[in-house]
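Exercise 7b. Backbone tokens:
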């Protein structure tokens, strides 16, 4: 049986302090040696994920902008979300009508995005090159974020969490749907066992869509609250937990 591994990036394979994957390097190399496909599935843009594919030494499909699109080499992109222009227009309306103090990457310079995120200027520019979503910043309390969720919902959009930073996507953008589409393609080659690793609320649909799901710890300890049947909570924040989950999987595959 073929194995396919889907993984979130920020807070999962990458840590939040410098976006390093060093703690998972040995596990990544072990997966590469076995030829197990690793599908990146994150809020990052297509051009950002291309960079990480190169750094990690992997190739193949990827799920971009929180499930807004599936990119498969040699195939037409499968779009589940909406154009970025649609999101930006909605955010302009919300800012004016709902009087919410939000700013998006489109409102910021590359230098401002770099300062906000800790990314290098080059990486920050790639993060701004969104195609089907927009990242927003709002330094406000939970009530303001709930108002934002409601305003987005009325416009066929959504986001996750209560900030202060979040990615706004079309209501049909979904990591789980994207995983299902890719799994169907892999099944054409034969039986497949799908695995996924994540850390946040936006990963829940992806974790529900696979045969085996792993949730790594969040900074400060503990796990994101979610109800996914069979979910395995792994000790270790970010790439530390990622490596532990993968090492466990590889050992089980070896013993099978």
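Sequence design result:
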């Amino acid at each position: 049986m073929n194995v396919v591994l889907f993984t979130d990036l920020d807070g999962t394979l990458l840590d939040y302090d410098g976006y390093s994957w060093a703690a998972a390097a040995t596990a990544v190399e072990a997966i590469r040696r076995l030829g197990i496909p690793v599908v990146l599935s994150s809020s990052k843009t297509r051009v950002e994920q291309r960079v990480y594919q190169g750094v990690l030494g992997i190739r193949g499909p990827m799920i971009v902008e929180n499930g807004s699109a599936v990119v498969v080499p040699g195939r037409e992109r499968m779009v589940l979300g909406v154009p970025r222009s649609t999101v930006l227009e909605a955010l302009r309306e919300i800012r004016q009508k709902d009087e919410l103090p939000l700013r998006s990457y489109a409102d910021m310079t590359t230098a401002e995005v770099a300062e906000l995120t800790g990314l290098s200027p080059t990486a920050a520019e790639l993060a701004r090159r969104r195609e089907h979503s927009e990242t927003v910043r709002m330094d406000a309390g939970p009530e303001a974020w709930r108002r934002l969720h409601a305003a987005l919902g009325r416009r066929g959009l959504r986001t996750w969490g209560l900030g202060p930073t979040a990615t706004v996507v079309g209501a049909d953008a979904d990591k789980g749907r994207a995983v299902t589409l890719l799994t169907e393609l892999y099944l054409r080659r034969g039986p497949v066992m799908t695995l996924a690793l994540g850390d946040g609320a936006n990963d829940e649909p992806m974790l529900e869509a696979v045969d085996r799901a792993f949730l790594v710890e969040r900074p400060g300890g503990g796990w994101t609250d979610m109800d996914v049947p069979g979910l395995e909570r792994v000790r270790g924040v970010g790439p530390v937990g990622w490596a532990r989950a993968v090492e466990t999987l590889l050992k089980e595959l070896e013993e099978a």
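Instructor comment: The mean pLDDT is 96. The CA atoms of residues 157 and 170 lie 4 Å apart.
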